[in-house]
Amino acid sequence: MSRAEVEDFLFHEASLLDAWNLDEWLQLLSDDATYRVPSNDQPQSDPKSALFTIADDIRRIRARVTRLQDPHAHAESPRSRTRRMISNVRIVEEKPLVVEANFVIYRFRGNEDVRQYVGRYRHTLEKRDGKLKIKSREAILDAMELASLGTVSFIL
Amino acid sequence: MSVTPLVLNEPQALRFEINRAALVDQKIFDTEREKIFERCWLYVGHESEVREPGDFRTRTICGRPILFCRDTANALRVFLNTCRHRGTVVCREAAGNAERYTCFYHGWTYDRDGKLYAVPGQSAYPPSFDKTRLGLQPPPKVDNYRGFVFLNFDAGAPALKEYLGRATEYIDLVLDQSPSGRMEVIHGTQEYDIRANWKLLVENSFDDYHLITTHATWLDYLKSSGVEIKRPEKGHVLPSHGLGKDLGGGHGTTDNVNFRGRPVAAWIPIYGDAAKPELDRIRSEVTARLGAERAKRVCDTNRNLLIFPNLVLLDGSSVSVRSFQPTAPDRMRVRAWALGPVEETPLARQVRLDSFLTFYGPGGFATPDDIEALESVQTGLGTYKEVQWSPLSRGMAKEGDQLNTDEAHLRAFWVQWDKLMRS
Predict the structure, then answer these.
(1) What is the pLDDT of residues B238-265, one digit of tens each?
(2) From the DSSP assignment, how many helices (H) and strands (E) are in chain A?
(3) Residue B2 confidence (pLDDT)
């Protein structure tokens, strides 16, 4: 697996999320995938013993997508516009394939000022039937606290 | 001099309305700090957040930097986090353990008990310089109720226990989840701003009228995961019966029959089959310890408790301690923690944390929609000079019990707020 392949995959994932193409995004996940955002003050934690902002198993990821597609998910209705910049992509482990990347996600909504979510992705990927799938994805925010970022109502 | 009231309370006419300026106006906001936040008991933190001698946490309370810590004898201490020399914040870390607290500016050093320990070049001060009078200063009053630590900036304030009054019954109900009556704050803080007046979060924290509409997607999530959501009885808007209670002193609570799943101890399919025996075991322990009736109160009711003015204990899908600091008329900083019994097994702890995230917090399935509602209200309140009043009269014409979807408990908050503002 080359870094370029991983990069292409992460760029593709980012484009799906920015386009709110969430059904297609779900296809990138394995059937036991997890999605986590740790609390800002405990970035190196386990959701079994620490409070996270988000700690979804695949069922809750799917439920999250269902919710976000519902106009009654008021926090994202109307939806945010997001634009993800992904860089510094590195393969940090080969087996299993663990990749890290820096991200900046610009979020625009209504007439609010832009909110900038800055942090690091840590994904575990695996190849199934010749295709890369996400087994786990973690978005670790650099902000000391969410503060003016407010909520994490869209998918980081 | 204007005599327009901020709270229009006419029980005979069955009218209760809030002047929207109370949620917008900068002068009212400034008065609140003086009349409410500098007079009332304010939540600092929980004893479990500092455990060993020298453990500390820093936070901002009512605009003051605060040091919450354990001294050498391991007693809980609260200090105003400012050097007695020039005013520098002495402890600038969010949390940690300190042998001593040294101000980096000129090097004044305080010990864990707050005493001024060392002053570089002390001989240059005149003989009247008295180190014993220059220790870290505590707020006028500090006390704790069963591990919840509060401070008061008013030296003449009543004792904490007296201030909490009947709210202690509802704090006790939360603590009864633990076999030893001891709960702990779990690692991980949810800290975020809401662009709305703090009193809107007070209302939102125990107003159940909004549940069906604001949290429609959360209810759908519960339904689709196998939780039975009953149709409301005639005249009701919620799937289960619940009350709203005025506890006096501005404190209030909801007191609701549970339908949503609780870590102690009402299993729902979201928790997974593996957790079922563990929740049964917890349930048996609570029943054996407290008897069937009290166990039902602890396990089968959800309660959102407001401790006036800015502390909320949410005992629902999990237990959350939430306090909020107003930072501007249209802005607040929220801090929320998960609370669990100290004896909890790893499996039960996992269920508790997972259940927390189904509803609460900035990434939960419900809280973001609450925040959206509050911010949307605040935007709408831009019209407060033209659209001046908000009705808060649900349940007013009714004798007897007030429902959680009525507004008696919200009115109780506002009556106390108004009383203090006019004091």
Answers:
(1) 888 999 999 999 999 999 999 989 999 9
(2) 3, 6
(3) 55
**Beta-strand pair B319-328/B311-315:** antiparallel
Domain locations in chain A? 3-149
A111 → chain B, closest CA residue = B379
Domain segments of chain B as ranges: 42-152, 165-421
The pTM is what?
0.96
Q: Considering CB atoms only, which of B186, B225, B369 is closest to A50?
A: B186
pLDDT for res B1: 44
- Interface ipTM: 0.96
Domain B42-152 CATH class label: mainly beta
Contact criterion met (CB < 8 Å) for A39 and B372? no
- Average pLDDT over chain B reads 96
- CA dist B33 → B37, B141, B419, B420 (Å): 5, 17, 14, 11
Which residues of chain B approach chain A closer than 8 Å at the C-beta?
Answer: 94-95, 186-195, 214, 216-218, 220-221, 224-225, 333, 337-338, 346, 349-350, 353-354, 356-358, 361-363, 365, 367-369, 371-373
Residue B23 Cα distances to B297, B372, B408, B411, angstroms? 35, 16, 19, 15
What's the first-to-final CA gap in chain B, in angstroms?
Answer: 17
Tell which CATH classification among 3.10.450.50, 3.10.150.10, 3.90.1150.10, 3.40.50.720 matches the domain A3-149: 3.10.450.50
Closest approach of chain B CAs to the CA of A129, in angstroms?
30
Of the candidates B188, B191, B214, which has its C-beta nearest A50's C-beta? B188
Domain B165-421: give its CATH code: 3.90.380.10
